[in-house]
């Protein structure tokens, strides 16, 4: 069996262009699908896939580790997030081919199941981008939080920290505290709340201010309370604060996790399969985390193929805590890719179909061609014009 062609298919989903990777083989009808979505980098990702493809054309797609080594070593330059996202999508498709060739689901090839289903959480609006990133204030947060619970979820994540710099006013911090207690009152004590700071606080001191404001609502975890490069600051927060700290979505490949794990920079790791290097690399990251007593809650606000890959990863990974999902990002999420399971609110059950188990509807994808994504990050500007982290 040999790889004969690698190509990409772009599907616009408003804030993101989903980049699907198609790997063809010389076995009639045997193709694999992966996903390499990276917001606001669509053209770069497509170009990277085209640049990388010649390295493994003619190779056996079942030699996944060998292909990964070629893709990461034979280009000479070490890969950043664009290159690794492209590789992740290709690698994912190779697993799909491998599973189909053996008539087995991918999770079984990753070591078999360690659980019967994966617990999932969603965002406000069930992943609608406007709701996710533009909800603030006690009443609005509470209303949308109740809607998530009424839809059947028992865990919800919010992006409730305002755009910040090195300090924030007492008014801003008190507003966050009030809104989050309103959300807690609205959803009840049994629903898990996660808070994504999006790396907006630029200092440890401000991160502490916001964490203290969040603590009374008893979050399951507080995510990225500092920019990802501040490993020492994250380690300090993890050692001193009374909430679980989660981070790692912007770490690329297992080597990026080495220093963070040595310094115990977080309680919960959040690798993204679409950026970290694919399924094998993310399994290695999870194993490293497990050896340090750290659970994983993988990052995944992306498209449907990324979601299915996360399902197979979660079924086969012992230290999984919970899985992020974004199946409400667009109303037609379920029409471009047919999943191997019915997506239940808060729960993804065991898939049994071979490979990833998906059917890709390219005719439906063609109805949503590439468009410039909504550049939501351009909103991250303080009143005086200072540019801050989105």
Distance between the termini: 45 Å
Form type:
globular
Q: In terms of per-residue confidence, which ranges show pLDDT below 50 for 5 or more consecutive residues?
A: none
Instruction: Report on the biggest sheet.
Output: 9 strands, mixed
Determine Rg (CA atoms, Å): 20 Å
Helix content: 25-40%
Keywords:
390 residues, alpha/beta, 14 strands, 40% helix
Describe it for me?
- The protein has 390 residues and is an alpha/beta fold.
- The chain is built from 15 helices and 14 strands.
- It has helices spanning 42-56, 64-73, 81-102, 106-109, 129-134, 138-150, 170-187, 204-214, 231-240, 254-262, 273-276, 279-291, 304-315, 333-336, 362-365, and strands at residues 3-13, 16-25, 31-35, 117-123, 155-158, 192-196, 221-223, 245-247, 268-269, 295-296, 323-324, 337-338, 347-349, 359-360.
- The strands form 3 sheets. Strands 4, 5, 6, 7, 8, 9, 10, 11 and 13 form a 9-stranded mixed β-sheet that branches. Strands 1-2-3 form a 3-stranded antiparallel β-sheet. The chain has a two-stranded antiparallel ribbon with strand order 12-14.
- The protein is globular, with a radius of gyration of 20 Å.
- The termini are far apart.
Task: Quickly describe the structure.
The chain is of the alpha/beta class and 390 residues long. Helices cover 40% and strands 16% of the residues. A hairpin with a 5-residue loop joins strand 2 and strand 3.
């Amino acid at each position: 069996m040999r790889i004969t062609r690698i190509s990409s298919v772009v599907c616009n989903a408003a804030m993101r262009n989903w980049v699907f990777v198609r790997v063809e083989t010389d076995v009639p009808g045997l193709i694999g699908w992966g996903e390499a979505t990276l917001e606001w980098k669509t053209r770069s990702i497509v170009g990277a896939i085209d640049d990388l493809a010649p390295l493994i054309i003619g190779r056996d797609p079942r030699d996944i580790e060998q292909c990964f080594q070629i893709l990461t070593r034979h280009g000479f330059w070490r890969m950043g997030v664009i290159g690794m996202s492209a590789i992740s999508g290709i690698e994912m498709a190779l697993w799909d081919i491998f599973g189909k060739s053996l008539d087995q689901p991918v999770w079984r090839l990753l070591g078999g199941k360690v659980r019967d289903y994966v617990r999932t959480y969603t965002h406000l609006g069930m992943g609608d981008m406007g709701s996710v990133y533009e909800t603030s204030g006690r009443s609005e947060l509470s209303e949308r939080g109740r809607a998530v619970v009424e839809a059947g979820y028992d865990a919800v994540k919010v992006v409730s920290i305002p755009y910040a710099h090195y300090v924030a006013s007492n008014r801003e911090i008190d507003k966050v505290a009030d809104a989050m207690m309103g959300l807690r009152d609205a959803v009840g004590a049994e629903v898990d709340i996660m808070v994504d700071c999006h790396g907006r606080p630029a200092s440890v001191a401000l991160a502490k201010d916001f964490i203290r404001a969040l603590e009374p609502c008893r979050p399951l975890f507080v995510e990225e309370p500092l920019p990802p490069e501040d490993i020492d600051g994250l380690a300090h927060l993890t050692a001193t604060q009374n909430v679980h700290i989660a981070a790692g979505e912007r770490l690329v490949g297992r080597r990026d996790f080495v220093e963070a794990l040595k310094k115990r920079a977080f309680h919960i790791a959040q690798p993204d399969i679409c950026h970290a290097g694919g399924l094998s690399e993310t399994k290695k990251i999870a194993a490293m985390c497990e050896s340090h007593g750290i659970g994983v809650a993988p990052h995944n606000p992306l498209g449907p193929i990324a979601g299915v890959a996360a399902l197979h990863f979660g079924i086969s990974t012992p230290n999984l805590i919970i899985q992020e999902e974004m199946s409400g990002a667009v109303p037609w999420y379920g029409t471009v890719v047919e999943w191997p399971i019915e997506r239940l609110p808060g729960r993804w059950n065991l898939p049994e179909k071979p490979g990833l188990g998906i059917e890709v509807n390219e005719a439906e994808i063609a109805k949503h061609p590439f468009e410039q994504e909504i550049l939501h990050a351009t909103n991250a500007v303080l009143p005086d014009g200072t540019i801050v982290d989105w």
